[in-house]
């Protein structure tokens, strides 16, 4: 390119500042369009963050299949069913078994009691399936299962009730005639396994089966890799079990159906807002195109002079596109900064919500601004390169 970049930027700046009203109106159009897009992206990010917070308060996304039918000898799903499902359903992340021992037990440690405690027997990979964190101590070992040890893990809620500031590890607690030795504490999740309770205690499935005499309710927890996979995983699991138990009716419960419905609603709203943002951005693009056309018509003689003294068509085209890009960048930056601080203010004072500045959303909004600027000015800039030099010099 014949003209130095600094001189090109200088010419562009002078052209933009020569007509403040025109440049200001173009800047306003870009500001409104990018502001709408940036607001939409922030809302979508906040909605996703809210769902992630709610999901973090629960076990990892899982489903619980169950069978019922008059002709079934036993509607419980066991180890053979786990192996079958792992072979037939490829998107299973992990499977564990859960046996309900007592839903309203009373536990005692010295002179302290905890009522309405949920007691469950769980398999070896329960932590992997649910994602529960071991806060202190350990999970059950193979020896615990093989030797039917009366060991237990409790959640934070139960540990706080019974032990307060004492360490629960290796302490013995009692439930009627049963004695358990605590070997670990896991994080508590709101709602527990089956609703609100006074806390939760887990024991090895082998010991749970031995104290219940085989009369218990056991189920499988099947976890997915991602929240979005739960509907497909549920359908595939039901189809696989229906083939294995053709006389049974297969149903399934999952722990994230409300979050999936919430995310679906939020995405519909975000899509609607995106359309509004794109329309606003398109209006800004039309403004840029109109302003660029007007600039080409007003500066026909200037174009002719520059062409006559050696400016190439590419240099003429780049200057007009550069003017639009500068306005787009400036308007976009102001819009993104304004939306960021406004969103931060709203989410910290009026409607508390998780919000963090997103580089991805910023890049998308700024990219949209630049794309609109270049796209809107391209045809008018191309027209400027086709100005007849002789006719332009003769024009007033």
Core attributes:
alpha+beta, 13 helices, 19% strand, elongated
What does this structure look like?
The structure is a single chain. The chain has 396 residues and is an alpha+beta fold. The chain is 57% helix and 19% strand. The longest helix has 42 residues.
Please summarize what this structure is:
The protein is of the alpha+beta class and 396 residues long. The protein is built from 13 helices and ten strands. It is 57% helix and 19% strand.
| Backbone shape | elongated
Helix/sheet category: alpha+beta
Q: Tell me the radius of gyration.
A: 33 Å
So how many helices?
13
Which ranges are low-confidence, i.e. pLDDT below 50, for 5 or more consecutive residues? none
For the residues shown, what is the average pLDDT? Answer: 83
Helix content: 55-70%
- Alpha-carbon distance between the two ends: 29 Å
